[in-house]
Design brief:
The protein has 257 residues and is α/β, with parallel strands linked by helices. The protein has a single domain (3-189), classed as Alpha-Beta Barrel (TIM Barrel). The protein has helices at residues 3-12, 28-31, 40-48, 58-64, 96-101, 118-134, 153-166, 179-184, 200-212, 222-225, 230-243, 247-255, and strands spanning 20-24, 53-57, 73-76, 78-79, 91-92, 106-111, 139-143, 170-174, 190-193, 217-220. The mean pLDDT is 96. Bound molecules: ribose-5-phosphate.
Length: 257
């Protein structure tokens, strides 16, 4: 891995802890105005400075994020179908040149293993990695889960391993039972997506479990920005990921208004 790639990755994954708390706010790329992201500037600006990295589309970055913010950015570069269509029908929507112009520290795209367009999304990942490596840009592969797929260690392990084999520099996937098996069989860092909003204590417990089972942190959205105390939740997740805080300690941090 060359200097540029290492330097960018170290802006996303803290070299001191080997972990990251990424704030995922890209949901609108297929869901439109997602709850919590409708009034993006008002709701998300106070959170950005607490995040290790912001996972976002170019459109929201350009229109709704203050360029003076120092938080590193990982840019979602895939899309195509909306929530009304075949979600696996994704292609690359944002060029590497644009990612560099926007000063991204990484780029991310989804692969849809087991879905109709798995082959195209996996080949797209291969092409993107090839191009990104020419410029020292890390690629995050996201193992999107189709409606009919079971979120278990066998399936998510398969998807993460394929992403790493194709060359992804880090992978985002969902939590599942025996998550350690997913991490163990994946040679690159695995970060956990939060999934649908669940009660805060459960989200903190899930994070603690994931980190204990080897996750390199989280790329979490709804369980932070849909919380009744998003900044508190952000701080609580950070305490677990970077400082090894217990769930009770983290819950106390979240509860402070
Ligand atoms: C999915 O649309 C995106 O990749 C999200 O960034 C990812 O699912 C993480 O967000 P959440 O924690 O809300 O699942």
């Amino acid at each position: 891995m060359d200097y540029g790639m290492k330097n960018r990755l170290s802006r996303i994954i803290n070299p001191k802890t080997g972990k990251t708390v990424m704030l995922a706010v890209d949901h609108g790329y297929f869901q439109g105005p997602t709850t919590g992201l409708k009034d993006f500037k008002k709701n998300i600006s106070p959170l950005i400075l607490h995040a290790d990295c912001l996972f976002i589309t170019r459109g929201m970055l350009r229109t709704s994020v203050d360029p003076a913010f120092s938080t590193p950015v990982c840019l979602r570069v895939s899309g195509g179908p909306s929530i009304l269509g075949d979600l696996s029908n994704e292609d690359i929507t944002t060029s590497l040149e644009e990612a560099i112009r926007l000063n991204a520290s990484g780029i991310g795209m989804s692969i849809f293993v087991g879905a109709k367009n798995e082959d195209r999304t996996i080949s797209n990942l291969g092409r993107l990695v090839g191009e990104a490596e020419r410029y020292g840009m890390p690629v995050l592969a996201i193992t999107a889960v189709g409606r009919d797929m079971v979120r278990d260690a066998r399936y998510l392990g398969l998807a993460c391993r394929i992403a790493a084999e194709i060359g992804a520099h880090f992978v985002k996937t969902y939590y599942c039972e025996d998550f350690f098996k997913v991490v163990e069989s994946c040679p690159v860092p695995v970060v956990m997506a939060g999934g649908k909003k669940i009660p805060e204590k459960e989200a903190l417990q899930m994070t603690a479990n994931a980190v204990k089972e080897g996750a390199s942190g989280v790329d979490m959205g709804r369980n932070i920005f849909q919380s009744d105390n998003p900044v508190g939740m952000m701080k609580a997740i950070k305490a677990i990921v970077h400082k090894g805080a217990s769930v009770d300690e983290a819950f106390e941090i979240y509860s402070k208004k």
